[in-house]
Each structure stands twice: as C-alpha cells, then as structure tokens.
Specification:
By secondary structure, the protein is mainly α. Helix content is about 75%, strand content about 0%. A two-stranded antiparallel ribbon has the order 1-2.
Length: about 300
C-alpha cells in the first residue's frame, strides 16, 4: 500500500522557496549590520588596522557626556517637530483640494510631486545659492521690497540654520504625503460621502465627520515615517552645511559620518549608529503604542 503524502510538505517547500530569499536578504542587509554596529561599539578601531582594542562601555560612557551628540539629537527632534507641524497640515490640505477638484486639476498632481523627484544633492546645491546672504534670491527680494532688516544669513547663523534647512526638507517631502493622503481619500467609499451629503454635511462638516476619522490610519503612518526619516536624516544637512556651523545643523547621521569616516573612529561611530537605532525604534514603538491605545479607546 503506497504511503500517503503529507499535504503540508509541498506548502512548506513553496513557503521556503518564496520567503527564504527575502528573509536571507533582510538578515544580510538589515539585521546583521545592526548586530555588527552594537558589536563594534565596544571597540576602539580606526577602520583600517586589522586589530581592534576592546574598550568595554567606554564609547557608550563618552557618548552620554558628548554635548555634540546631544545637540545632534536635539536637531533631529527639531526637524521631526517641524516635519509634523508643516508636512501633515499642508500635505493633507493640498490632498483634500486635489481630491475635491477631481480630474480637472490632474496636472497639479504632477506639479506638486516634482520636488520629491529631484535629487537631494541637486536641491542642496540649488538652495545653497538661494540662501546665500550676499547674492541669494531670498535676501535680494527682501532688499528690493525695503525689508533689509529681515535679510539674514539663513544657513550661516547657528541660531536659525537648522530651521532654514528643516523648512527646505519639508518642501521637498510634502509631495510624498500629498500622495499618501490623496490615495487614502480615494479609498473612502463614495456611499459614505453621498449619505453624509444627503444628511446635509457639506465641505467642512464632510471633512471633519467623514474624511478626517477615516484618515487617522494614514496620518499615523505618515508620522511614523517622519520619525524614522527625520531622526536619521543626512542628505541636505550634509550637502548644504556639512553639519555646521558649529554643529548647529548636525544630525545623528551626519555626526556618525564625521566620527566614523572623517575622524576614523569607527567604534565610536558604531556607538552613535546603535544609539540612533535605539532612539528611532523607541519613538516609533511609542507612537505605535499610543495609536493602538487610542483606537482601542474609540
């Protein structure tokens, strides 16, 4: 009598065949670098010598007292705060306008998305000229309209440089959140809108009673992406100022790069990378916990 084949074996084989490569690549390019960063954080190593000196928790102890690291953490949270305050309202507002306009203003969907398609390096080089205190477009316009007192050194003044670049980051990434919210709005059943309109809900009431509650999930997703992106942001900060002046625009990512590849302190750079991972992971999990708790209460 022939043995009956176990029906689970083909399914398990197919599962391993399709998911195995993905799991392997995630472990290779995501999990292993995180583990390696934590391991290297316990060594004093310049990245070139074949031998590494085990220093225990010395790098972590130095990190806790490093004022420039904490300044980079503060700058990351400034960027995060401005991203939430600027990108969410503007992204949502423009998405609602485009949604209500329908296909009549389809061209604006492409026009608004254009900044997101530009290279960060190109944007940085372009706006470095725009922000120039002597020949830049902003100060030239302010001078022409007799507002010379408002003309500032936008990226050279340590007090305002981080805010200037943060606004530029918001300008570049608002299109992404417009697209995110627009997709969420298009996913709302038309029957709900029609029923609300029959009951007399128009414009603001329709948005507040129907659209906004159904967009909470997309808003939580947007804020989570902002947390991850802002706290580890590198591109424009490095291209425009290199983290200066006096570390005023330094983020954890730029400080990591300076420590590991400019100062040849790979062990200390790995410590910054590990701390960056812990901070981003903690904040993202906190947002996820609060959002889940809010959904359960509602």
């Amino acid at each position: 009598m022939a043995k009956q084949m176990d029906p689970l074996k083909p399914k398990l084989s197919a599962l391993v065949f399709f998911i195995g490569p993905t799991v392997f690549l995630l472990a290779l390019f995501l999990l292993w670098p995180i583990i390696e960063s934590f391991r290297l954080s316990f060594f004093d190593w310049n990245g070139l010598d074949p031998s590494k000196k085990n220093v225990g928790f010395a790098n972590w102890s130095e990190l806790l007292g490093d004022q420039y690291f904490w300044l980079s953490v503060r700058n990351g949270f400034i960027l995060l705060g401005m991203s939430i305050l600027v990108q969410v309202p503007l992204g949502l507002g423009i998405a609602v306008l485009l949604y209500r306009a329908g296909n009549r203003f389809r061209i604006f969907k492409f026009a608004y998305f254009f900044p997101f398609l530009m290279s960060s390096v190109a944007v940085g080089i372009l706006f470095r000229q725009v922000f120039d205190p002597n020949f830049g477009l902003i100060n030239s316009v302010l001078t022409q309209i007799n507002l010379e007192s408002w003309a500032l050194d936008w990226i050279g003044d340590p007090k305002i440089a981080i805010y200037s670049i943060s606004l530029l980051v918001c300008w570049q990434f608002i299109p992404f959140y417009i697209l995110l919210f627009l997709a969420a709005l298009n996913g709302i059943p038309r029957e709900l809108e029609e029923a609300a309109s029959i009951d007399g809900a128009q414009d603001w009431k329709l948005f507040r009673r129907i659209h906004l509650p159904l967009l909470k999930g997309s808003m939580i997703t947007a804020i989570t992406l902002m947390v991850i992106g802002s706290l580890k942001y590198f591109d424009l900060m490095w291209v425009m100022t290199g983290g200066g002046p006096v570390y005023s625009t330094s983020t954890m990512a730029t400080y990591l790069y300076q420590s590991a590849f400019k100062s040849y302190r790979v062990g200390y750079g790995s410590t910054i990378a590990s701390a960056l991972f812990l901070i981003v992971f903690t904040v993202a999990m906190l947002i996820n916990f609060l959002s889940r708790k809010s959904r359960e209460e509602n």
